[in-house]
Structures are given as C-alpha cells and as structure tokens.
Design a protein that fits this description.
The complex is a heterodimer of chains A (381) and B (513). Chain A has 381 residues and is mostly helical. Helix content of chain A is 71%, strand content 0%. The longest helix of chain A is centred in the N-terminal third of the chain and has 30 residues. Chain B has 513 residues and is α/β, with parallel strands linked by helices. In chain B, the strands form four sheets. Chain B has a six-stranded mixed beta sheet. A six-stranded mixed beta sheet of chain B has the order 16-17-18-13-19-20, with helices on both faces. In chain B, a hairpin with a 2-residue loop joins strand 1 and strand 2. The chains are: A mainly alpha (381), B alpha/beta (513).
Chain lengths: 381, 513
C-alpha cells in the first residue's frame, strides 16, 4: 500500500502541541493586558515573575527547592487531569474530579490521622473512596439517566461538607487545620526514596511524582492499546454502536466513572500524604485542583502524556503567581492570572480545528496551482 | 418551446487534496422541469450540490440564476435565491413538533416577537392536503417514522415557497405507495413552474418522473439526455461505465434445518402504548432468504430489535439453532452465529470516529485472534484482518485501514459493515435495508453477497422496503402490517400488486409459516 506523504503539521500529536503552545501564549498575553489595566507600572515585572516561578530565586539550590514544591503540586493535578480525560474518552464529562479529590483527601487524612495507618493503606483507602464516589455518578447515569455533570456537581458539595465534618475529629484544637502529618503519624508520610536530596532536601518531593507519571503512562497504554480502551472509546464515540456489537455499555460507563474517581482521589492522597498542606476544615469552597484538572486535560490535548506537561505548566504558573508584588496587586492577582491562562487553555480543541481548516485550504490552493500547471503542460486530448 | 434555465452551473471544477471531485461539470436546470442527477457514490453529486449551496467554492466555472451570474458564498445566499433541499440525512430537531421544525428559521411572529403558530398551522395543513403529505403538525419528530420525517423535510421546502427544489435521494425510505405520491407531488410542483433537481440512483424512478437527466461518473460530466429518448440500460451504462445486471442471478433455494424459530413474539413500542410487534411467529431455514416486506413503520424495526437483543421482548420465544435466546445478551447472540446488518449504519453499524480497521473488528475484537490474554489489542492482527476484508469486499477509502470511517462514502461504509458481518461466518444473517441509499453497482454487489451467504447454507432474514429487492432476492416473503405477519407469499407466483394489497392491510392471508 502506498503511503501518502503527509505534512508534519497533520500529525495529531504535533497539532496538539502547537495548539497548546498557542493557547499558553494567548493566555499570557491576555493576562499581561489585565495586569496592564490594573497597574501599568508593575505589569512587566509581574508577568515575568509569574513565568519565572521558582527561577525568581537566584541561588540554584533555592531554585531546586521551589521546583520541588511545584512538582509536589503537579502530581495531584496530573491525576485530576487523567481523571477528566479518561472519562472524556468514554464520552463523560467528569466535573466531579473536584469532589473525588476532596473525598480522596478526606479518606487519606482520616486513615492517617485518626486510624494511624501507614501511607499505603491511606492511599488505597483514598482510591476506594474516590472509585465509589465516581461509581455513584456512573450508576445514576447508566441506570437512571441522571446527567453526569449534575450528579457530579452535587456530589462535589456533599463530599466537601462530609469531609469537613469527618476531619474535624482530627483537627488541631487551635486552628481550622488538620493535625500536621509528619509529627502525628510519620508512617503515613509518603516515602521520598531519596528524591528529596535531588531537590535540596525538599521533603515534599516523594514517590508521588514518579508514581503520577507512571499512572499517566499506564492510562495511555490502557486507552490506546487494550481491549478495555477500545471498548471505552467506542462507548464514548457511539453508545448505540457499542450496544449493537454487544459491549456492556452500562457496565463500561460505571467502570469508567469509578476509575476516573479513583484517579482524582488518588491525586489528593498523593498530595496530602506529603504533608505539604493541611486540610482546612472550615473551607467553604471545593478546592480548585479538580477543576484545574479539566483545564490541564484539555491543554494537554486530551492525551495522558500531554497532561504530564500541561499539569506541570499550570502548576508552574499558579505557583509563580504567588510571587507577584502584593503592594501593587491585590492578593488574588495570582489566581486571576492563572485562571485567565487556564481558561484560554480550554480553546485547544478550537485551535486544532482552525489549524486543520487552514491546512485544508492551503492544500486546496496547492492542488489548484499544480492542476493549472498540468493543464498548461499537456494540453492534449 | 424550450423553457429558459432557472439555474445553470457551467463548467464547475472543484478539487480536494489528491482528488478532483468535480471536473468541468455543467448542469442546466430549466424552469418547470424535473431534472435528474444520476451518478454512483463518489461521482461528485454531493460536491456539486455543496457548490450550489455555497458550502464549497468552485475553483472554476460560474453559476447563473435566470441567466444572470450569481455568487453563492454561503447557504444563506442559496436560500435568498430560493434554492431548497431535502437532505438524505434529515436535518430535524428530534424533540420539536413537526410544525416547529417546519417553521424553524422562518417563524411567523408578531412585531413583539410572539410566535404566530395558528397561521403557520393553517398554511401547513393546506399544503399537506394539497400534496397529500398527511403530516401531523403536532406530532413530535422523534415519535414519527423515517418516512414521515422525510415528508416533514419536504414540507419545510414547500412552506418556504422555494423555487428550486433539490431532492437528495428522496425515495430511499419511502414505500411504493408513498413513492407514487411523491412522484405526483413532484409533477404538480413542476407544473406550477417550480424547478426540481432530483438526485437518485434509482433508474426506474428517473425514467418515470424526470424530463431530462445529467449523468456524472467519477467526478466527470458524462452527458445530459432527454428521458423520452433513452432507456434504463443506457442510463446505467452511462452511470457505471459498463452493463449492469438488474436481475439477481440465483438458483433454486435448498432449505435445510430450521435456523431461526420465532414463536409468539411481542415487542413493545417506544412511540405509542400499543405493541409494535404482535404475536409474530415464523421460521428461517438454512439456505433460504426470507424477506419481511411491509411499509415503513409496521413493526419491522422493532421485530429486528427483539431478535437481535437491542430491545427486550415482552413475550414469546426466539430460538437460534434450537437454543433459546429470547433473553440472551447481544454478545451471546453474536457469538452463537447471528450477524446483523443494521438499518441505520451511522447509529448502530459503525463507530464513525474509529478507523476502518477498528470498525472491521467491532464484532470480533474480543476474540483471541485480536486480543492477548492480558487484554492488549493485537494491532498487527487487526491490521492484516482489515486489509484482507478491504481487499476481498472491495471497500474503498482514502487511506485504507487507518481511514476514519466518517470520511468514507455511504456505499463503502455499508460495504465495510457487510464485509464484517458476512465474514463472521454467521449461521443467520439479519440484513435490514442493506442497500438503502446505495447506487446500482453497490446494490448489485450486496445482493450477490447475500445470495452467496444463502448458498453457503446460512439462513438469511432480509428486511426491506424496496419491492424490487423483495421480489428479486427472496425465497419466501412475509408481509408485515401493523405489527403482524398478514401473509406469506411466494415471490415466483405473487405480483407486486398483490403484495401491495397485503402491505396496505387490505388483505390478510393464512400465516402458516
């Protein structure tokens, strides 16, 4: 069979990458404009601070330490984005990643602080809790046709307040935060395997980082190379055809949501079991990690491997925002800028579409030119 | 006297990367004529129509309306010029009523923006009575049959008072009687001075209703001829480039053991509270083609859903080779030897966003040949299997096995499904409207495959709305009317007229199968 030579730009991977880079660029420009509007004099400095993130520090070892922090926060984001994209491939929009993340945090911290379990038990508890929560949405959709988005949003809030209540039992008596992990139950802290030494003794860099990357690769393999991925994607693309060829589409939907839920809650465990942050039992909004997972999934071109890079980038920008000069801009500026960038990132699919249109048009023009050349060359018949 | 031209498309050339879809094509539609556009799948008919509707811009050539050159940049321009089209795949909002669909985009309102449906209803009922379309303005589109949906589409055009009416394969889903009615409508419209462009591969219909016919083949203009001075054979030769057999060649059936045994089958209807299939009993033997004939919407779809497991049955039994499969899962039926060429190839037959090779293994991907014990797909085996099917069944596509199914022509999509279902080596092949919307070349091919399946000793249950197909292909005919089998006919001794009477419910015979 003759293989058509196709433009490198036609390659789906290359397209995703270019579209994502374009989104990032536009996001940064729009963010810059917003900074200019608020306070022109500090805009240049602020935007470079955001982009630089840990590079703001001049000393290499400090840089490494703060890179470590970004990485520690990238792992949970990556898992949330995997959760979103995995469900998306089966045609489901898992906006419940946020709630599944909350449940994961609750389960892992409760097992660590109240039951004094070692880290792997806490991790498994989180995974199971998230899978159950995801499966609830899946079951409601498959057997009662309840819209996944709606059931997920409601479960997000149910999860938040349940976890707040649950973790109050392991709360520090003087603050709204849960007890510090490292001092209460050191066995629950994720092992570092020496990774902390690479990052100037940053003890928050644990096996969570390599584990998250391995999970991303596994998800890619499952989606692209296995029977399960074949079935899930077929169900996502065309539920009726999946049913017609005898796939158990309802079972597949439930299983997809369970796996998606497990991924997001595992992300939470991989974060809170580092001890980087304590859970605030008085928080009244669902943590945005799960929602950022949606952006990371789309920015990564809905590819598990792309998600690795996009998750790091989004976390990099979010962390960088924290360094912006607070005398010129209010404290929320970092959130604002990173959300603008994340928002624009949602346009990846649109840019891909536009790029294909443009390629089609230029290919047509080329064909036209060649055809007119041919006509001039051989005017026989 | 020759009428002036309403629309002229002169020397249209449209190229796509790697292919010239329209190569110097000229189409001239006279005022008040019915002009057929004939060509196989991929001949360039759709592209030409897309150019006329402004969806594509032609690289060369011009379009004239009433002798004046016009620019059609987008479908709005086409609408302004009074060009309307009934698409092959309907463009209807399923959860809207027929009335709402018809007025969609041209809603009559008061100045304040309040809908004036009463007026629209009057106009629709008047048009409906005038042309015998019998549309119920208040029915929901999702509840009405495919045939009725199409009549809604036709009504949309009539409602908009379009001057130039394009019918894209309008008869593919209509019953013989409905086709007759449609032909009459088209004649009436033409008599009123509307110009009709009738896209079809059905030579009989073109011969019956059209005044002139333009033939395309592989993107090239073959010619325009007067129907009065031509024959069916000549048209088909122009279209296909060779002689085509119209009669299916087949030997006497040699029925063997019972393959499918259906007793007292009842299936509930989704559209209304009545049962769609009522106490139906029949058998299919090995080595015979049993055809379920009937007007669209008389329970054939639900019967097939019940047999294949897509919908649960209310009562009765279904046995495949003696084994009760009444409540068996779909996968079990498939592995036990049931193949199903579905009525709707886009809804059920294909995962359109999957590659051709993935679609080719849709019924077999779970077999050890294609998946390892650990659950990994054997990409190499899938590729070579797909390549073999593509080769054997002559499935044409842009990039072979990795072509996305969505980008393939309807005929080749159908060929892919047929390849997949027949190559599964079934004991029973259930084929529902297997040639819907296909051209004569593809129909000839599919008929041959179905006969070959029968001759290999398999049972075939064919559900078809096309009388020609029923008459030429089947060994036994069962006529369905309002969910019941009202007669069993022998294609050798019956006539189309007799079958028509059974289909219309005017006659009921013994139903001993």
């Amino acid at each position: 069979m003759k293989k058509e030579k196709t433009s490198l730009l036609r390659n789906a991977g290359v397209q995703s990458l270019l579209a994502s880079l374009l989104c990032i660029l536009i996001g940064l420009i729009v963010g810059y404009i917003v900074l200019l509007i608020i306070e022109p004099s500090g805009a240049n400095k602020a935007i470079t601070t955001i982009i630089k993130n840990f590079l703001t520090y001049s000393r290499t070892d400090t840089q490494l330490k703060y890179l470590g922090n970004t990485l520690a926060k990238t792992a949970p984001l990556l898992l949330c984005s995997l959760s979103v994209l995995f469900a998306y491939k089966a045609g489901l929009f898992n906006i419940g990643a946020a709630g599944q993340y909350v449940i994961g945090a609750g389960a892992s911290l409760y097992f660590a602080l109240a039951l004094n379990m070692p880290w792997y038990v806490c991790l498994i508890a989180a995974i199971i809790a998230g899978a159950v929560l995801g499966a609830i949405s899946g079951l409601l959709y498959a057997y009662r046709n309840v819209n996944v988005v709606i059931s997920c949003i409601m479960l997000n809030w149910i999860s938040l307040y349940s976890v707040n209540t649950l973790l109050t039992s392991v709360k520090d008596s003087t603050s709204p935060y849960t007890l510090p992990l490292a001092s209460t139950n050191p066995s629950a802290v994720l092992p570092t395997l020496g990774l902390d030494k690479l990052f100037n003794g940053n003890e928050y860099v644990t096996i969570a980082v390599p584990l998250a990357i391995i999970i991303a690769i596994i998800i890619w393999v499952v989606l692209e190379k296995t029977k399960m991925g074949y079935e899930l994607k077929a169900t996502g693309y065309n539920k009726n055809a999946a049913k017609y060829c005898g796939m158990q589409e309802k079972k597949n939907l439930v299983m997809t949501m369970a796996i998606a839920g497990a991924l997001a809650s595992m992300g939470a465990a991989l974060y809170f079991l580092t001890g980087f942050e304590q859970w605030s039992c008085s928080q009244a909004s669902v943590p945005d990690m799960g929602f950022n997972g949606i952006a990371a999934a789309f920015l990564g071109g809905l590819s598990p491997l792309g998600s690795i890079l996009s998750s790091f980038f989004i976390q990099h920008i979010s962390s960088g925002g924290a360094y912006v000069d607070k005398t010129m801009y209010c404290a929320q500026i970092s959130d604002l800028i990173s959300s603008i960038i994340i928002y624009v990132c949602g346009f990846v699919l649109f840019f891909k579409y536009a790029m294909n249109k443009w390629l089609d048009r230029s290919a047509e023009k080329k064909a036209e030119k060649e055809a007119s050349k041919d006509e001039k060359g051989g005017a026989e018949q | 006297m020759e009428q002036p031209y309403a629309i002229e498309m002169l020397h249209i050339t449209k190229r796509f990367p790697g292919i010239i879809a329209n190569d110097d094509i000229t189409l001239q539609l006279r005022k008040g004529e019915i002009h057929a556009l004939l060509g196989e799948n991929g001949a360039g008919k759709s592209t030409l129509m897309s150019v006329l509707f402004g969806l594509y811009q032609a690289e060369e050539g011009i379009i004239k309306k009433d002798g004046k050159e016009v620019q059609i940049k987008d479908p709005n321009d086409a609408n302004d010029l009074g060009i309307g089209m009934v698409h092959q795949h309907f463009k209807l909002v399923e959860c809207f009523s027929v009335l709402d669909n018809i007025i969609l985009g041209v809603e009559p309102t008061t100045k304040g923006g309040v809908l004036q449906k009463a007026e629209a209803r009057k106009k629709i009922i008047a048009l409906s009575d005038k042309y015998g379309l019998k549309v119920d303005p208040d029915a929901l589109v999702e509840d009405i049959t495919v045939g009725m949906q199409q009549r809604t589409e036709i009504m949309k055009m009539l409602y908009r008072d379009n001057e130039i009416l394009i019918f894209d394969e309008p008869t593919a889903v209509l019953t013989p009687q409905e086709i007759e009615e449609l032909m009459q409508i088209m004649r009436n419209l033409a008599a009123e001075g509307k110009s009709i462009l009738f896209i079809s591969h059905k030579l009989n219909e073109i011969m019956e209703v059209a005044d002139r016919c333009t033939v395309l083949r592989k993107g090239k203009y073959i010619g325009t001829i007067d129907i009065a001075n031509t024959t069916r054979e000549e048209l088909s030769r122009m279209m296909v480039g060779r002689d085509v057999e119209f009669v299916v060649q087949k030997d006497e059936a040699k029925p063997g053991d019972v393959i499918l045994d259906v007793q007292g089958l009842t299936v509930a209807s989704k559209a209304h509270s009545n049962n769609a299939v009522k106490n139906v009993s029949f058998q299919v033997h090995a080595g015979e083609i049993v055809c379920i004939a009937g007007i669209d919407g008389n329970g054939q779809t639900e019967l097939v859903y019940g047999l294949t497991g897509l919908e649960p049955v209310s009562s009765g039994t279904v046995k495949l080779e003696g084994q009760d499969i009444t409540h068996a899962p779909i996968r079990k039926r498939s592995t036990m030897g049931m193949s199903h060429i579905p009525e709707d190839r886009h809804k059920h037959g294909l995962v359109l966003d999957y590659s051709l090779e993935y679609n080719m293994v849709l019924q077999r991907y779970f077999e050890p040949e294609f998946v390892s014990k650990a659950g990994f797909l054997k990409q190499g085996a899938i590729r070579s299997y797909a390549e073999r099917l593509i080769d054997e069944y002559d499935v044409r596509s842009g990039q072979g096995p990795i072509t996305i199914a969505r980008s393939m022509s309807g005929g080749n999509q159908q060929k892919a499904i047929i390849a997949r279902e027949i190559d599964k080596d079934p004991e029973l092949l259930i084929a529902v409207q297997p040639t819907r919307g296909l051209d004569v070349g593809a129909i000839e091919y599919i008929h041959k495959q179905i006969v070959a399946t029968r001759d290999a000793g398999k049972g075939v249950l064919l559900v078809s709305l096309e009388l020609d197909e029923v008459m030429s292909l089947s060994d036994r005919i069962l006529v369905m009317y309002e969910g019941e089998i009202v007669g069993e006919l022998n294609p050798k001794t019956t006539t189309v007229e007799e079958m028509g009477l059974y289909m219309a419910g005017a006659k009921r015979g013994a139903t001993s199968a």
